[in-house]
């Protein structure tokens, strides 16, 4: 593990404690529950897949095992990092969006020591104000792992609006060096379309404001 990175990450969180008030951080506990499913979560009346709205960046990638392989609708392809830990996947949304779940497919049976074991998920409106909203350890994981990203209010996770989401892989199974991730999806709130009607203020339009 890169100790310099962990030290800087810890320092950043300490600084964030001064920037954000208690109410800002409330509802963002660490080690929140996640769900494990055999099949990926799909869009419904309340959520939609917003993965294609983001710009994806990897900390490193082996040739032929990059973003395209990570984003394909196939579990036989994967992203493979090609550098020192920690490994990161960063998604930037140019337009601020509501996010609800971060979904990742892992396959220990196929990838063995390339499979992540310790991960952190951060969100923020700039790379300088990222906040950790998930910190999880997994043992020999296989399947879809779905992490809630919204604020916890009255026992329910409510979507939160953000520009950035970042996955940080801190450690692999059996202390492996590089990592494999076979698929990732980001789900967000299905927002109602806003229809704006023009406001006519010219005197020439006033005669049309009366009902006959």
From TrEMBL:
SUPFAM superfamilies: Galactose-binding domain-like. The keyword Cytoplasm does not apply. It comes from the Eukaryota. PROSITE patterns: DOC (PS51284). Residues 26-212 form the DOC domain. Belongs to the APC10 family. This is DOC domain-containing protein.
């Amino acid at each position: 593990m890169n100790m310099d990175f962990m030290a800087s990450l810890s320092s950043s969180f300490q600084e964030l404690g001064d920037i954000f008030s208690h109410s800002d951080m409330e509802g963002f506990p660490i080690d929140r529950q996640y769900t494990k499913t055999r099949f990926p979560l799909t869009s419904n009346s309340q959520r939609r897949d917003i993965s294609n709205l983001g710009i994806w960046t990897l900390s490193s990638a082996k040739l032929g095992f990059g973003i395209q392989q990570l984003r394909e609708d196939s579990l036989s392809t994967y992203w493979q990092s090609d550098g020192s830990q920690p490994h990161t996947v960063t998604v930037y949304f140019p337009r601020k969006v509501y996010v609800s779940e971060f979904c990742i497919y892992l396959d220990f049976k196929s990838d063995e020591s390339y499979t992540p074991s310790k991960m952190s998920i951060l969100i923020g409106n700039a790379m300088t104000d990222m906040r950790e909203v998930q910190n999880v350890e997994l043992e020999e994981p296989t399947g879809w792992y779905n992490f809630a990203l919204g604020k916890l209010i009255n026992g329910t996770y409510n979507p939160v609006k953000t520009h950035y989401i970042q996955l940080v892989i801190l450690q692999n199974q059996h202390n492996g060096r590089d990592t494999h991730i076979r698929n990732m999806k980001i789900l967000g709130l299905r927002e109602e379309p806003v229809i704006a009607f023009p406001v006519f203020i010219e005197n020439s339009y006033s005669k049309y404001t009366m009902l006959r």
